[in-house]
Each structure stands twice: as C-alpha cells, then as structure tokens.
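Technical appendix A lists one of the benchmark inputs used to test multi-chain prediction within the project. The record comprises two sequence entries:
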Amino acid sequence: MRRKLAVLLVGTMIGSAMLAGCGQNGNTESKQTAAETGELKGDITFWHSFTQGPRLEVIQETADQFMKDNPDVNITIETFSWGDFYTKWTTGLASGNVPDMSTALPGHVVEMMDAEALVPLDDLIDDIGRDKFSKTALSEGEKDGTCYSLPLYSHAQVMWYRKDLLDAAGLEVPKTWDEFADAAKTLTKDGVYGCSFPCGSNDLMGTRFLNFYVRSGGGSLLTDDLKADLTSDLALDGIRYWLDIYENCSPKDSVNYAVLDQATLFYQGKTAFDFNSGFQIGGVETNSPDLVDQIDCAPLPKINADDPEYGAETSNIPMVVWENSEHPEICKEFIKKLYEKDTYIKFLEATPVGMLPSITGISDTPEYKENETVQKFSNAVDVITKTMDMGTAIGFEKGPSVQAGLLTSQGIIESMFQDIITNGTDVEKAAQTAEDKLNEVFSTVQ
Amino acid sequence: MKRKVKFDYARWIFVLPALLVVGILLVYPIFSSLYYSMTTKHLIKASYDFIGLENYKAVLSDSNFYKAFLTSILWTVGSLLGQLFIGFTAALAINRVKIGKGIYRTLMIIPWAFPSIVIALSWKWILNGVSGFLPNILVQLGISSELPQFLSDSSLVFLTLIFINVWFGAPMIMVNVLSALQTIPQDQYEAAQIDGASKFQQFWHITVPHIKVVVGLLVVLRTIWVFNNFDIIYLLTGGGPANATTTVPVYAYNMGWGTKLLGRSSAVTVLLLAFLLLVCLVYFTIIGKWEKEDK
C-alpha cells in the first residue's frame, strides 16, 4: 500500500512538473489581440542594448508609463551588451527563444531579414511619418520594398582630438591622412600616444579603421558583386597606413584592443587622437572631467586635401519586431511611444551628442537645443550630423547585404592585421589570405 | 520452484528524474552534435542537408585546426604540470603547518571563489600594456626598460595565460591532495623513522602510494577541464594575437558563432570528444592498475 502511494505521489509530481513546463507559454489570456478586444492586452519582451545609465532608465520609465496607460500590457525588459545580444538572438532563433521586439545593429537586421525573422514595419513608419526618416537609414532595413526596421537614433564616426596637445605642439587639426600621421607621431611622447590602432579579433575596430581610409579614397571593402576587396591598391595602402600608425604612435597592446579598450585610452587622456561618435564626450566626462574642455572633433581626414567630403561610417541604430511575437501590435504602439517628442528628446538627452535624432523636427526644437552638452559641443553636433548624412554602415555603400554584416563580425580583417604585426607576414600575402577567407565565409550564405 | 520476481516500479520512478536530466543534458547534446556534424546545419538557417563526413574532411584539412590542437595540448600539459607542482607543494607545506591551517587553506582557495569573468577582467587590468599595475611596476623597478606586453607580445602571451591558469587551478589540487595527505596513518611515518628511512624515502614509499589514486583522478578531471577551457582564454585574448592562443574550444566557438557553420563546429567538438575519451581511457587504465596493486 505504502509503495503504491509513493508511486502515485512521485508520478503526480512528475506529471505536474511536466504540465507546468508545457503551460509556461500557454496563457490563453495573453493571446487575445487588440483586434479582438479593441484594447492592448498581453505580455511582450523587449531586448535592448542600453545596459546602463540614463538610457536604461529612460527606456524603463517609458515602459512603466506605457504599462500605466495600458493596464493589461506587461513589458519585460532584458538588456544585453551588443556582443552578448548577437549570440543571444542567433542561438535564440534556432530554439524559438527570441523577444517580441528589440534593438539591433544594421548588420544584424540584414541577417534577421535573411532568416525571415522580422515583421514588416511599413505601417508603423507611415504612422510616425515616413518623410521624417532619412531614406538611407530606412533602406538599411529594407528588403524587396518592405521595411523591417526603423532607426531609433543615429551617429557617425569622426576624428576626435585633444585641443591642448595640438596647441602645445603648434599643430593644426589634420585634414589629410599624411597630416594626421605626422601629428600623431609628433604627439607620441610623455606617456601620451598619438593614436591607438586597435585590432583585437573580438571586435570590428581594425575593419572600421581600414574602412575609414578606403572610403576616404572613394573605395569600398566590398566589390560591386559583394566580394571582399582587401587587395585593391587603396586597401593595401590603407593596411600599410595603419601598420605605420601602430608601429609609431600606438601602444603595442592595442593589437588585442576592442572598442572599449580603445575608447578608454582617450577617456583617460592617454591618446591625442581617436575615432568615435559623440559617445566620446560622455566617456571623457566620466573618466577625466578636467579634459572635457580640451576635446573636440573634426571630419575624418582625406587622402588629398581637395578630395570631396565623405562619411565613412554612419550607424542608424534600428528597432525591430520579431516574427515570433504574439503581440506585434503592442510592440508597434510602444515603439511609437518612444518617438513621441518629449519621450524621444528625454531619451536622446541620456547621451547628448552621442545619440543624435533619426527623425526630423527634433534637433531644431528649443527643448533639444537647451541641453548644456548640445550647446557646448555644437561644433561636434554639426560635424557628426553632416558626416552622418554622407555615410552608411560599413559595407552598406553597396546596399544592405549579409556580406556587409559578415565583413565586420568575423574578425578576419583584425586577424590579418595581427598576423602582419605578430608574425611579420607580407602585407599583400596577408591581405590575399584574409580576402579569400572572407569570400569563403560569404559563400556559405549564398 | 521458481520465485516470481516482482518488477519494482517505485525505484524506477524515483530514478526517472535523474535519468531524464542525464538524458537531456548529456545524451541528447552528444547525439545531436554527432548528427549535426554530418549536416550543413547553419546557426540561423532553418533548412540543412546531410553531407556525410564532409565537415570532418574540411576540419581535418584546415591547418588552423592542427595549430589549435597543438596549442590545446601545450596549454593542457603546461597548465596541468604547473598546477600539480604548485598544488602539491602547497599541500605538503600546509600539511606541516600546526596552527592556522584552516586560514591558509581558505586563503589559497580564494581564486576559486571568483567567476571566470572577474578573474579575466582583473588580470586584464593588472597586465594592461599601458596602465597595468604589473608592467608599470616592472619598469619602475628597472626590471624592464619598456612596458612588457603580457597579453599581446606573441612570445609572452601564451606563458602568461598558463601562469594565470596555474594560479587559478593549483588551489583545487592543493585542497584535494591535502585531504588525501590527512588520511595517511601517522604511525607509518613513525615506523619508517624508527627503521631509519630518510625524508625522501618516507615521501616516496608512504606518501606517494597513499595519494597517487587521488592525484590520478585529479589529473583526469583537470585534463578534461583544462583542455575544454574556453572562458579565460577567450576573455583575455580572444585567441589572439594572430591565433597564438587559439585552442580547439576557441576554434570551435569561432566556427559555430563566428561563421555560424554549426555543422562544421559540431565536427570539431566530436573530434575533441573522441580525443578526450581516448586520453581518459589511458588514464583510467593506469589508475585501475594502481588500484589493483594497492589491493
């Protein structure tokens, strides 16, 4: 009798546990849609990469307000760094464990669209006002005439420099790459490096720097038929240029640097030049407040002084809604809320100048202009905004493509630089090897 | 007359949860890896084809795989020898301490109390080639004329990683060896002393036979853990510079999460599993022999 009771008890426990597990997503209430009830109702999960500080707080406050306005809606926010986010969604896609909505990077969006993982957002874009968005930014999330993403904020890579160091050395702000190299070499002294050249294989920094040079010459790291191009004269010149900077002006440890290692040197006043967006200001303010008055930015150097103005890398940080979502209507309403003027300005103010508006009608409002950092760094705002309008994500100058995403996510260009620096491999040979390797990776997605 | 044996349902039901866990967490991943290793499985693509042994051919014809394999062997042997030497020596030393043994043991185990991410970031900070504490103090003391680049100089980086792994793993060896040392009957040493045995003879003929099985098992476990170690290497160097620290797990990760070729990455992990099973077979044969000798 006792044995039978024990069997019954354990059997019941296992059965209950299995039922509970199966029932995790079985909330029938949450499956009711707005169309059925006329009100927003259900739970959504939002993954974003604003892992700390005021940006995180503004997003949470907006979600709280949205839930207050829509009592039957529950928004669960989960944050990941960009690196973790990529791993999370790629693995999540295989197991069906993706959120309802998320932030992304342009390169991710192309891969997401390729995997048919996203919901079209044309209705939302029209609702907010299609003409408010830059066409280039929208095209980064467009496939076969349908938009699958919309940019939340934008920024562009520009050249940052230390005014005090340039003044002390009697140098002008460099306008060409040759002037830049000369200035960087001159300023490499007394514990300060002219410019760090980062090429850690866990990040895209080596690709970014090479892309600056190649784009300044009107070239691209991709050919018209979307093959890697590291062996053009321009690309080879670019590789040699950055190797020279590494050799003469950079800490040797930068061979392993990722984006934060690189930026931290400038934040701490250990580099005279760096390349970044307006996020540089917040970093310097936090790490070396006394240096904030000594930094400013300028357009990226050119090969020849009379070459046309250009933008090498613009980032329009997109929002997407996932195909797996049971409540795309809630996601769209929440995204719309993020673009409401007051909310949007508050969000941008979380990192002033770092995040610039992706929609028109914001930057000329008194509320936006009255921000102290925006006023203080008005030159930076102008330089970045102008550069932003001329650039695209790396490789997107040939149109959005999976290849452009792979160009930056594989660390192959970074490994090429490491190979030359560490093993003394011939530049042309290393470039050819890296180009072949990239094309081999590209072939896996065709 | 034959007695009818009653089938005991209760014991199977009690064991079932554990069997399910083992099945889901161990058997399923092994067989799914084996299956995917023979397909074109891609991380974010739904469809894939069966391609037989093509992934194995691709992996085994890649020179970077052999380089990673060699690096893994050196990494494992170097780390293991270092951990055994330091752990063993520390255990013998602490075993002779009369007062405060617990405090010493606790202090020694500190590295194990931290997650890998904390350890990696701390060492990255200490060894930073610009502002790191260690490179700067070496320059200030006149030991080095310029800042040593522990994590980017190809002649230093591998040894640096092994040093960190020894620092991290030696306490575990120490605690286990110390426990084994404390089980040795003291009267055996006293008898040996009366017979005029030297310290080395006592160590070789009393200490070693008593602890060799424990040490053998530790070596088996540490070999598997160190060979499969991924986090510390990836967080500190990402396998660089120029693949100087790319071990097989890092190679497999880059294959699966970088190029998203999950099929090929699975082939790497299956090869890794086969190799480790072979190593364990050798180890267990030796340990089995020792145990027989003891009996």
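The CA atoms of residues 200 and 277 of chain B lie 35 Å apart. Chain B has one domain: 61-294. Comparable benchmark entries are summarised in Table A2.
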